[in-house]
Amino acid sequence: MAFAHVGHSVRVLDQDPMRIQSLRAKMDPLGEPHFADLLGALEIEFTTSPSAAYIGAEAAVIATSTPQSPTGAADLKNVFAAAEAIAEHAPSCLLLVKSTVPVGTADALQRGIARRFAVVSNPEFLREGHAIADSLCPDRIVAGGTPDAESAVLNLYEPIIAQRYAAFGAVSPSARRRPFYWMERRSAELTKYAANAFLATKLSFVNEMANVAAALGADIRLVLQALAADPRIGSSYLRPGIGWGGSCFPKDTRALSSFALESGYDFRVLRAVIEQNNDQVRRFFEMIRDALEHIDDVKIALLGLSFKAGTADCRESPALAVARLIQDQGWALTAFDPSIPKGSPEAPDGIAIASSAEDAVANADAIVIGTEWPQFQDLDFETLRKLTRGSLLFDGRCIIEPRVATAAGFQYRGICAVSDQVPD
Ligand code: UDX
Fold this sequence. Notes:
Elements: H1 2-5, E1 11-13, H2 17-24, H3 35-40, E2 45-47, H4 50-54, E3 59-62, H5 77-89, E4 94-97, H6 105-111, E5 118-121, H7 131-136, E6 141-144, H8 150-161, E7 180-183, H9 185-216, H10 220-228, H11 249-262, H12 268-292, E8 299-303, H13 318-328, E9 332-336, E10 352-353, H14 357-361, E11 366-369, H15 381-387, E12 392-395, H16 402-407, E13 411-414
Helix pairs in contact: 9-11, 9-12, 11-12, 12-13
The structure holds uridine-5'-diphosphate-xylopyranose.
């Protein structure tokens, strides 16, 4: 859509006829902000036919999923199937690989299926919930190929690099050109994994630091405020919680760890980061269990199920992992998530979904915050306290102001709680 918005003629191919139908009807299959509005304003041809999609194309883009195989490596069958279809139907043209693929995949395509194309690795860095803004106004554009392909890629991206497009919704062109990094294919492929692995490492470090602060009676929020003031550290990706999830960080960190090992390098830091992340949910659940296991017929209200705020996506969601542990404990659970309506067929794992936070907390022994939805900060905690049976509030995302919860009569616990039982 970003390419179409900046003036290129775009055709979109997908094998799923339902998805193509919904896109033709200008409907957003993903719930991405601004998507439907932008789609409505564009003329894009949607098709399930490879020949219709590729005929006369000057560039073909592979953006298929790369799910995780049982070994942790990326499963590339969709990427190779797309490359075969392009080789069968497209003229000789630029072939951009946007899917997140292990280092060496684009080289393998160039040597094999796509010999007559100029294969370019061109990873994307989109965040769910910000896909339109991140596409039209990216922090950077990364592309890798042989030197003769650079000018064609630059031409394709020039309107985005120069930020020459009509403002759309909340997205306005930046006053600054966007940086363009040209390199060889392998480096471009690795850049994507390095970005996700670095951010995941930063988060796991912060989560580990929060656990250390809790053990030592320090206030992690104050520690992080002071850390964020150092421009070398920065303030983003510094909020502690029950771990990072979604369709990218978990899959991409495991894939990087796996193909690094295949190439003979044991990426120990990354292995520890993944392990820490798996542990973080378990530690949080144990905190809840230890506080409640002496009570009969425990009932928990879980606020948030999606892997982060701003999306209904529950893939590898830490909140969902907490929900499963609560269910495994045999406790009653009611969840509220602003993105998942009551009665939704998409409610994961048969979890009972309430239509509001107030409904979810009625008669609960404890409230658990699982996702960082900002609207949870605006809840009326005094009203919630009147509705709950118990007074425990476990904040898994460090978004509730402890003083507000305590003033309303809750016992504030969680990843950022300051312990009153400190060692000497
Ligand atoms: C991520 C990358 O940010 C993006 O560049 C890449 O293209 C795809 O993967 P996304 O999966 O949308 O994007 O999630 P992101 O917004 O990065 O959040 C990932 C996880 O980290 C979420 O579970 C979120 O709750 C968690 N997170 C994020 C924190 O716990 N604390 C923070 O401070 C930030």
